[in-house]
Amino acid sequence: MAIPLSNARVGVFVDGQYISLNGGHGMRYDVLREFATRDGAEVVRMSVYLAWDEDRAGEDHGYRRGQDNFAATLRDFGYKVIRKKVRRFTDESGNRAASTKTDLAMAMDVLLQSENLERILLLTGDEDFADVVRVLQSRGCRVEVIGFDNVSQLIRSEADMFMSGYLIPNLLPVPQQDRDAWGKIGSRVRGVCYNHSGKGYGFLRYVREAAPGLWITDSRHPDSPYETVFFHDSQLPGNVAFHQLPSRELIFEFDLTESDRFENDLQAVSLRLVSGVGRGRAQQGQREGEQEDQWEEEDAEWEDDEEEAAADSQPAEADYEEGEEELEEEEVPDRP
């Protein structure tokens, strides 16, 4: 039986600075909009909160042009762009630091606008938003949280649904792969290991397409948007041991090939860990120690990548480019 479509009023709120600095650099905002309306819901409000370095903009015309072009592209996709100034200061220890108020502005807006919304997508990983989630739910809103790295466990547990942005098809582009290739033989996708035998093999699950029924995780169900993929432990990356599996915390990127064990089925090879415990913490430590440098480096890369992503999604707007054991047969069970 087909899943009925929704007519829910949806709002999308993105802490752009947090997402970009925590694994979501180069995220496709057009794909995000499609995900928000995957079940036929109506988008009522979409807002992106960005850091704006006014001092740098006055001296670096390339930075200003790139940021202006990026903001224009977001508006073309239907987003309202809210820029918050980067403020630099010296702390009590004499260290130079910088901050923005993007999170505060976003929290205030989502609370004020929630009375007109039924479902809210928050793109952040900040633990401070856990209280915001609770208030939104008390007002009758369903709250879905999307994040990449360094996502607070508290906000994950408070949300009605948490989904890693790495798992949403094409939200974060796979390098050198066309958007329509996702899920096809020979393509590269991302997923998690949900079952491991302890005998040299396991099973991965990935989202085939952004569609209704994300709660139907059994890929055998006709309305499930998921696919299951077999893999040999020999394909695991060196920084992951089989005893760590299964795990929802470890997200893998892998190639899809024809299965050597299941007829007319898929197999994963060349697994690479893209997100998980340890990797995220290392990235966070680096950012905490080099925040100011990160802002400048991310901004410079952001200009190029976001313009390229926008050009890929809208070829007619190329001008934005100016402004990512061998196994015994009897040991292999039916697919769980």
State the order of secondary-structure elements, H for helix, E for strand.
Answer: EHHEHHEEEHEHEHEEEEEEHH
* Beta-strand residue percentage: 25-35%
With strands numbered from the N-terminus, the spatial order across the biggest sheet is 3-2-1-6-7-8
Q: How many beta strands in the DSSP annotation?
A: 13
Low-confidence sequence ranges: 280-292, 298-303, 309-333
CATH architecture of the largest domain: 3-Layer(aba) Sandwich
The number of helices is 9
* Major sheet attributes: 6 strands, parallel
Identify the CATH class of the largest domain. Alpha Beta
- Give me the CATH superfamily of the largest domain: 5'-nuclease
Helix content: 25-40%
Shape from CA axes?
Answer: globular
Indicate the radius of gyration in whole angstroms. Answer: 21 Å
Number of domains: 2
> What is the rounded distance between the termini?
22 Å
The average pLDDT score comes to: 83
Briefly note the structural class of the backbone: alpha/beta
